[in-house]
Structures are given as structure tokens and as C-alpha cells.
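Researcher: Please predict.
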Amino acid sequence: ELADKWIEQARREIAAGTAYHLAITGEEGEQEVLVGGVGLRLAEDRRSGSLGYWVGRRFWGHGVASEAAGRLARWALANLHLERLMASTASDNAGSIAVLRRIGFRQTGEGHEFFASRVGKQAVLRFEATRDDLFGLPAPGATDAPAAAQAAAAPAAVPAAAAGGKPLVLVAACALIDADTRVLLARRPEGKTMAGLWEFPGGKLDPGETPEDALIRELREELGIDVAAACLAPFAFASHAYDRFHLLMPLYLCRRWRGRIRAREGQTLAWVRPQALADYPMPPADKPLVPLLRDFL
């Protein structure tokens, strides 16, 4: 009876778009078998979600829960408008506690929750994870960091030392603007630093490159378009102190290019009206540029 109720509730939540409930399956010979389940329920404001999972007893000890829960958690923060994930587990469930810590969750508190399987309230530990917990922060040498957070890959790429001895890193970004005055944003894909955040296309300057040269190369590599230096108009710049380096990022505007824009690096693309730019979560260095661009357009 409890299983029937849970299945019906899961079906309603999936249909309403308020949760993701997935089966974990495996193969025994040529037969597909049910191993467990993993799910994510969204909060009413769609800014956070609650992660849950279970694995059949005979499949314990094979890393199934860590693989499934970690995969769903990373996918959720990289593809949904979520700021954090939460999870809780019985305080005496050492295996589940280890799973959460292994995939990047950190303990935030304690409490009590009702467990149908135990027919009563149970002491629980509460956990939480953000993008920084699961994907990490940019650091010098990280070549997959977003345009607004890319660090130097070699000493030759570091133009100077900022205050406090931090490397000063120079990257270039571009706001592509279409005929309807929409701005192109690219979302960092799963597996990249700061996955799930939106950014202006661009990237780190290679040794000897000008910002214009870097943008021409990056836009061709990322989006498959050709841009002439004469079509890149300097607009503003961002200056932001990250933990391990200081970022200086000029932002250019571009309204003319050749070719059809397509995502060549697995990123999600969105054409955004100027007044809606602030609705897209961005790296800290990009945020001050949004009101300037919105007011200009």
C-alpha cells in the first residue's frame, strides 16, 4: 500500500513538473533489473531542491547510490535554476551519510523527520550542496573556467600581480546582439567549473593575443561564427577579486557576424531580452555588467 501511494505521488509530481523521479537499473545477463531509485523534489520557489535515493539491499556496496545521486545532483545544478540542493538521512545510517559526503554535500544541521518505514520520527542529519561544493571554484591553471573566471594557464599569460600578490588575469567577453536587440548568453555545461551559471561568450587571452584576437578565436571555437575585429566595439570592463586571482575582463559588443550560431562545446544557449538579463544567474564578475548593458540597449 505504501509503495502504491508513493508511485502515484511520484507520477503526479512528474506530471506537474515539480520533481524528477528516476529508476536506477542494471543488467543481469540479458535482463534489465531494478536496482533502486533516485529523485529530486523542487521547492515552491524553484530555487532549491531536495535529493533522495534508495538502493536494494543486495546491490549495496557497489557505489550505486554515489553514482546515481551524484549524477542527478550535478545535472540539476548545471541545468536547472537552482541555487542549492538539500538532503537528509537518518543519523544512524552511516552508509547514506557517507554517500552524501562523497558526492560533495556538507552537513548543515540536525533534526527529526517522520519515516514511514520506521513508523515514527527519527533523528536525522541535514546536508546541503551548492555549485561551489559540487563543481568547485576557478583557480589559476583551470582551463575550463568560464570567461569571467578563467585563470592563466602559464606564467606568460599573467600580465601582472594585483594587490595582495594575486595573479592578474585578463580575459575577453562579447555580448552578441541580434536584430531584435536580444543578447546571447551561454550556460556552463555539467563537468565544467561553475556549471549552470550563464555567461557572455569569450575566454582567456593566449600569450601574445589582443582581446580582439582572443574573441575572434573563442567565438569561432565556441559558437562556429566568424567575427571581424572591426565589428567588435569595446563597451565596458569588469574588475573582480576571486580567492586566488584578480580578474580583468573587457566586454565588447557585436551585432554583425558570419555563420549560424550553434553550441559547439555542449553549452546551452539563450537569446535574452535586456530587461531579463538579471534573471539569469551569472559568475560574480559578470553581474556588474548587466545593468550597464541593459540601460544601453
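Model: The first helix runs from residue 2 to 16.
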